[in-house]
Amino acid sequence: MKEQQTPRALISVWDKDGIGDLALALTDAGYEIISSSGTAKYLRGIGIAVTEVADLTGLPSILGGRVKTLHPKIMGGILARRGHSDDKKDVKEHGIPLIDFVVCTLYPFEETAKKSASKEELIEKIDIGGVSLIRAAAKNHERVAVVTDPADYELMARAVRNGDITDNMRKNLAIKAFLVTSSYDATIYDGLTRELGEPESSIGAYSRDLMIPLRKEQDLRYGENPYQKAAIYMPTLAGKVFEQHSGKELSYNNMLDLDTLLKGTEIFKGKCACIIVKHTTPCGVAQGVNDSDAYEKALASDPISAFGGIAGFTQKIDAKLAEKLFHHFFEVIAAPAFDDGALKILGAKKNLRLLTITGNYNPKYQITANRTGFLVQNETLPPKPSLSEGRWEGTPRPDLWDELIFAWRTVSIVKSNAIVLANDFASIGIGSGFPNRVDAASYAIAQAGHKAKGSVMASDAFFPFPDTVELAAEAGVTAIIQPGGSIKDPEVAQRAVELGISMFVGGPRTFRH
Length: 513
Known about the structure:
Layout lengths: L7 E5 L6 H10 L3 E4 L1 H9 L5 E2 H5 L14 H8 L5 H10 L6 E4 L4 H6 L4 H6 L4 H11 L5 E3 L5 H10 L4 H30 L17 E6 L11 E5 L6 E5 L5 H16 L5 E6 L2 E7 L3 H11 L1 H4 L2 E5 L5 H8 L3 E6 L4 H8 L5 E5 L7 E6 L2 E6 L11 E4 L7 H11 L7 E5 L2 E6 L5 H12 L7 E4 L7 H9 L3 E4 L6 H10 L3 E5 L7
Parallel strand pairs: 1-2, 1-4, 2-3, 4-5, 11-12, 12-13, 19-20, 20-21
Antiparallel strand pairs: 6-7, 8-13, 9-10, 9-11, 14-15, 16-21, 17-18, 17-19
């Protein structure tokens, strides 16, 4: 005797779009449709016969709709193993109707969280029954097909009509289902920690498991090299930070450079600044009386390296600046806004990517995957040095403080080991990515040339020896800012005093590897 004459499909969906065609295909193929609440009402409204969940379980929907499908007759019908003697015995004894097909989409917790909903609204959008249905069907995928994505409705309707739901199809649907529920749970974790705070056990330290729900925003042209594939993923509760107006597809390397650029525009927030980035490190940074002035000063820092880089601004780009930018080759130009004239001028360059920065996404974590594992650290901008939390070595130069802070802001986004020389609120020499600090200083000084005389210097970390101070004095550097922390700090300070250089020691180390 057959266990079941009529195949059954349970349909419980929040989003009703497209479900009618799949339900009709199931009905036409002889499936009995089981449903409840809004889904049942919708299906009946389009002429599809529905068996209510309550008619199978003998219990109505209770607790304001919080409990509908969580019942042994429903969960048992999904989880029962056909051909398993004990399961067959339980099915017969308790009159459990076997369910062969489950279609389920979940309460919109993500959409609710994005609307800054109250805690009560968030709680009510945590799906319980739907996740249970999906997990049960996915667990029993050898016997049950589970559909969680409306994008699969058409494919499954076709398979149902053709009587061709394969084992491989059920397996793939099950894997996708577990991805849906894990992402959903991670989004709830993210949303509720924003609302309720981190659990006490993880305050001040990372918890054992790290949950970050990510969703692909867009594919990239290619990865770091053309043989590698790449895409941008964003946390489900975060929005995309830019809008692209023109140009070819963005690449992975564009995104790496854009990260440095966005750090820079954040750290120079409130200033009229231009930052030019090449290979993830600035090659020119400047503040100006207007955006054109800032651009010209930044470009003058290293016009050769700026070729093929990306340029970013803290203020709107107008047509006057656009005319100047048009004559230099940049991969990307980014700003908080472009006026119509600027978009028209720069949009004429076929491959130039124009990006309006639309958001200010500040990730909790910086995550780097490498062959040792995933390295995780909190992601925050460094705190600005303060006159009250450091010390002057040699003659104090508070008159140079703003210039020193400009140099510090710049060096904080430069790859380590990093040295920056600055004058008139513009970088004139940047030594980045060197294995030792004295070579970084030598490069920055050589790049600055005669402009080094009267400039200020910033270092992203302490001086392990006085040699960098000696190079600075020889080049005519007037003042230095560095965080200190070396066992040779007294020796370095003494040498600065001997050479007549004012040195402020304070602020955080700002390594960027």
